[in-house]
Amino acid sequence: MKxxxxxxxxxxxxxxxxxxxxxxILFAAGEIHRPGRVEDGLATMDYMPEEKERGITIESGxxxxxxxxxxxxxxxxxxxxxxxxxxxMALTAVEGxxxxxxxxxxxxxxxxxxxxxxxxSRVHTILFVNKLDxxxxxxxxxxxxxEEALGVRPVLMSVPQFKNGKMCAxxxxxxxxxxxxxESGAEVLDDGWESDAGAAEERALLKKYYDEAVxxxxxxxxxxxxxxLENKPVPPKMLLRGLKALAASxxxxxxxxxxxxxxxxxxxxxxxxxxxxxxxxTFGENELGQVIRLRHxxxxxxxxxxxxxxxxxxxxxxxxxxxxxxxxxxxxxVDEIRSGDIYAxxxxxxTELGQVIYLDDNCARRMSRQTKFDMTESNSWYLSEAKVxxxxxxxxxAAGNAAPSISENYLPxxxxxVECVRTDDYAHVERSLSVLARMDPSFRVQKDDGGFWYxxxxxxxxxxxxxxxxxxEFGCEVRAGSPEVxxxxxxxxxxxxxxxxxxxxxxxxSISISASPLEGDAHDIRLSAEFMEKxxxxxxxxxxxALLESTEVGVLGKGPLVGVRFEVHRFExxxxxxxxxIKKCCADAVAKLVKPADVQLYExxxxxxxxxxxxxAGLVTGDIQAREGKVKEIEGDGKTHxxxxxxxxxxxxxxxxxxxxISKGTALYSMKLLxxxxxxx
Length: 681
Known about the structure:
By secondary structure, the protein is α+β, with helices and mostly antiparallel strands. It is built from 16 helices and 35 strands. A 7-stranded mixed beta sheet has the order 2-3-1-4-5-11-6, with helices on both faces. α6 (199-217) packs across α8 and α13 (537-553) packs across α14 (579-593). The longest helix has 19 residues, at 199-217. The termini are far apart.
């Protein structure tokens, strides 16, 4: 019988203890000799220098371990909002996840965002309430907060025990046992528990939570319900069966508790991962597997994190492919791959995120590609970063295996000009930026004809990390300007039609084009041109490329032009016209069509969530208002001050330094994009 495989991710708000929990899981499974501390820069999963320096996870780390005869691939995802695309990619390759909730702060902004991602992705989730080693933090209050904020009922399956104000043991509800630390720091069963003075009290507490679990599980198992109604005992194996069904529901969530830092609650949590997660799915016939992550190793080049869809021995691998285990920044070769397992792959061609590679005679070139269409109008296409696809093929494409476009879920909020320090490095820098853009779906590069580039990033942390990686991994010396807010431009009115003609030698083309704004806050770029349905693909691709590049630059140079439908009324060309000529003709037409007076600037507004000691409340609130922020929620418990405010992004640059100074380092905050509003500056 083959060893079962489970792929899991771990998610949390920043500083909830996610990476510390990852280290403890690896220690409990025997993968590492001692758990590394994030504070000391020694976390096994955080292998990048930038991660060790900042104490945060940036790139999804992958580790492997065995537990209860199950093989686990374990993905530690970033908690910082700038790296949300990493989380999205990780969730395409897992069956289950651990969502960490800090008892110190409860459900925070990224906790809620992560839980929504998990629910949307239909990933089975187990909660872990962390930081309960501090007796000032309440498990009961955290469970109430979870139920109110996440809208699910937590079913508690482990309970911490304290002695003289320190956590000393864990009670495991399902096994009705007590766990303590051995001399090595590992959790072990307490065999002498029955003779302890507090055993009767702890037994009563275990029975209380066991009976509660039976009550909840009875909603999903008729046999459990029957026994419960007759006041008969429900054996653990039967309860486990009912809890498996409960774990797959939307109304409840299995919950464990403890302290990652002190190593309590880990054994029960990992055992739960063996019990409550679904098996890996059945994959499509003739599929080699799917690319879930791209990474670059200096001296090795590009590798793909790859989820296998098939069992294959080395002798049967397609030509040019190599597979390894990835351990931190090391590659360990393997002799076989198993369906559902995750490997590092070297392939004979460039791969793409979400790409499915097929196992056939043309494996090196056959793959799925993502497309996007306008499903509402018969003569329209969406123009996205994928290739343009005619609408009559959309049903075939929609049934394909391409992953949804993650890049379209992230709007770059900053743009930074970058240029080479040495002119001779231009080609190398351009290639390196292209690789980084392929590795991170939320990062985009815009080339300027002046010999420099604009880097479009979600936030400042992402920008700093990208520049550091550009130098460290690719050896590129660049000069970067100060980041600027990336605004949006929107049409105020319908414009056109505009006419343009372009000719080089015997090749001549002309176009008539108009544009109109889309309704609401849509930011798509759409093309209507019914007569072009029978045009050669290279013609349509040239028009598409020109429109995308023109709108990406914008009219005022402050950001992209969004929410536009272009209509091509006439397009004539001579046979043999090259795509660059078509792009030039169309780009010049757009420049004639849309003028500065035709667009309105919109600026990004952030929702700031902040907490600080009450004695700093006035200073913090005053600073937010000085930044043109609008405070919309204020709460407090007598010790801690909580607030939410809407603040223009242009006014929140360098906020980490400012709020640290005002609050003497005691304030915690997070931000997310709220939306765009008409600019007043």
